[in-house]
Amino acid sequence: MADIYDTFRDIGIIPVVAIEDASKAADLAHALVKGGLPASEVTFRTACAAEAIEAMVKAEPDMLVGAGTVLNVEQAEKAVKAGAKFIVSPGYNPDVVDWCIANNIPTMPGISNPSEITACINKGVTHLKLFPAERKGGYKIIDDFGGPFPQCTFMPTGGVTTENVSEYAKRKNILCMGGTWMVKKPLIEGEKWDEITQICKDAVKAMHGFKIDHVGINTKDEADAMSVADTFEAFGLAKKVGNSSIFSSESIEVMKGKGRGTMGHLSVICNNIERALAYLKQFGFNPVMETASYTGKKGESPMKVVYLDKEVGGFAVHLKRV
Ligand code: 3PG
Hints:
Blueprint: H1 4-11, E1 13-17, H2 25-34, E2 39-43, H3 49-59, E3 64-68, H4 73-82, E4 87-88, H5 94-102, E5 107-108, E6 110-111, H6 114-122, E7 127-130, H7 138-146, E8 153-156, H8 165-169, E9 177-179, H9 185-189, H10 193-208, E10 211-217, H11 222-233, E11 239-241, E12 245-248, E13 252-255, E14 264-270, H12 273-280, E15 287-294, E16 303-308, E17 315-321
Parallel strand pairs: 1-2, 1-9, 2-3, 4-5, 6-7, 7-8, 10-13, 14-17
Antiparallel strand pairs: 10-14, 11-12, 12-13, 15-16, 16-17
Helix pairs in contact: 2-3, 2-10, 3-4
The protein binds 3-phosphoglyceric acid (3PG).
3-phosphoglyceric acid binds next to strand 9.
């Protein structure tokens, strides 16, 4: 079974839900799943939170449903009894953390400064919610936390939106992002399920940040590659000769011979390759693992480049971490 924190990373955005009427929870769950965000942090800000968790789990059994705004052990117990798979709190409460550890329940306490992070680390808890993220410095404070706390990953919430989610998503010490922007109260109360689905889809797209980086062109051999690159110079594309290819500007890679793909390859930039691979699976793409390279030590650091196993229009595709 996949590690729950891998699931957090793969889904990437955890909708933070405050629901007043548990009878709407099932439809909300369906809308989120349809939008590509099969997760929910159901907050104990409303009286029916536990009931809503139960309804969501029943409606979408594969969805990652947990509880948020858990302020005490009693709420944590209630949430887990209702089917919550994880416990999130806006702040650090040692009692809740101890209870989760004792009961083997994944928990993400809220932190906003180094002292709170230290307290969590000393409990062995290293996946943390940063709240309120934007007011505390956004992705910049997360970069700063990466120095003294390399063992931690963060889930920023509070002010994260489709507009800024990409900046968070590309950071190595971000596990996932969270927020209410796709499940605002009027949307739930007005039963705007299609609108919720659409906001989720837009958020997913923004989170991945897919962009064409360069096109790779296959040639016969080195001499052929040189002549192609020389021709591109007519368009003002300067040559940069490498070992196995020649770059004509940064947008065209002329391969010295037959590279991957019938015609060549497309290099697609994304914010996080592991997360992109989880997303692309639904379209039948899988990684060719022997082509993977890493940002640091293999097994300890994220992927930098990997080819996919399916061509598009005669082109092989490789993902490249931004
Ligand atoms: C939370 O509980 O995590 C925040 O309320 C989410 O913040 P947002 O409303 O700015 O998305």
